[in-house]
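Long-time lurker, finally posting.

We've been working with Xanthine phosphoribosyltransferase (Zhenhengia yiwuensis) and I want a structural starting point before designing mutants. I don't trust myself to interpret raw outputs, so I'm hoping someone here can both generate the structure tokens and explain anything notable. Sequence follows.
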Amino acid sequence: MEQLKQRILTEGRVKSGNVLKVDSFLNHQMDIHLFDEMGKAFKERYKEDEITKIVTIEASGIGIACIVARHFNVPVVFAKKSESRNLDGDLYTSPIYSFTHQKEYMVRVSKKFLSAEDKVLVIDDFLANGKALIGLLDIIKQSGATLVGAGIAIEKGFQGGGDALREQGIRIESLAIIDEMGEDFIKFRD
Ligand SMILES: O=P(O)(O)OC[C@H]1O[C@H](OP(=O)(O)OP(=O)(O)O)[C@H](O)[C@@H]1O
Ligand SMILES: O=c1[nH]c(=O)c2nc[nH]c2[nH]1
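Top reply, 14 upvotes:
Generated this for you. Predicted structure of Xanthine phosphoribosyltransferase:
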């Protein structure tokens, strides 16, 4: 998606540890007009698939998922990273190692909100090593729902998580795939 790539080039900053900082428009301050364009792009790619639910993971996936969901007119369910008195009943759980927090979370989704009747699209802001996506796929599998695929804003292709999952037959649509990046350059996959 050209508009997203331009924003990455003009506002993105490459930090140590393979971190791309895009907090001015993606995951701290959020550009809702850009998110709306992403929603259109994902809808175009998944328009034949009769999605019934969008699944994401807190925190950074939630904003994008909500605006994307407007284009599919379906609810968003997000996997929670912490225990809460507000989270009751039976849960699907899966361990996920967080890329930026550098720790493992047992993430949870209430069984009330995901079932075998659902056709699920996973939405997230980043795909790097694939840990978040693998954990969400595990939860979707536990629920018996059908996984249609994933929609990712920025995939850091050089970390390999996306391609490993594609090799397993998972459909992943990423709007910008970075194959290489350094302090003063970012190279996108064609
Ligand atoms: O493919 P991976 O290596 O799993 O990386 C991708 C994940 O990393 C980020 O979450 P993170 O937990 O780092 O931060 P957040 O709390 O801001 O969502 C991002 O939002 C994705 O969920
Ligand atoms: O802001 C972010 N930058 C990144 O490079 C990244 N990788 C996973 N999750 C990420 N979030």
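Before you design anything, note these points.
The helical segments are 2-11, 32-45, 60-72, 131-143, 161-167.
The chain has one domain: 2-82+90-188.
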